[in-house]
Amino acid sequence: MKTIYLAGGCFWGVQKYFDQFPGVLSTEAGYANGPTEAPTYFEVKHGAGHAETVKILFDESVISVSELLDRYFLVIDPFSVNRQGEDEGVSYRTGIYYDDPSLLPEIEARVSLEAEKLGRPLAVEVEPLTQYAPAEEYHQKYLDKNPGGYCHIPRRMFGSDKR
What we know:
Elements: E1 2-8, H1 11-19, E2 24-32, H2 41-45, E3 51-58, H3 65-74, E4 83-84, E5 87-88, E6 94-98, H4 104-118, E7 124-128, E8 132-134, H5 142-145
Parallel strand pairs: 6-7
Antiparallel strand pairs: 1-3, 1-6, 2-3, 2-8, 4-5
């Protein structure tokens, strides 16, 4: 089992999207790579410096880092800085964070491939995880609990494996 942390705008949709893929064992909405250990949603929303992030525990024998990132790049604008969809601010930046350095070569290779394919550098952070805190319980599986909730990810991307 491996863990990767993906920031792709609002974590509600990112969590729902990744929950659908075989090999993803669990997801958790949280806050990453900010200056404090236990921020609140209010602090994050008001510029505390954390990224809304989804912690993904996955079985690498079923789904690889590259395959996860293939899917990630389907639902983000990789050139947007501090914005995805209608959400704007540093908490909505895009980022790929890792706590296992063995993942870095595969992450870097996949990000380089995407940049080459798109013809310019991406605005996606690739960094070691320096801080992570789970989001409040009401944010966990938010779109399952609130199916009409806002999400920048198109609804058609939920409910089936979009390879």
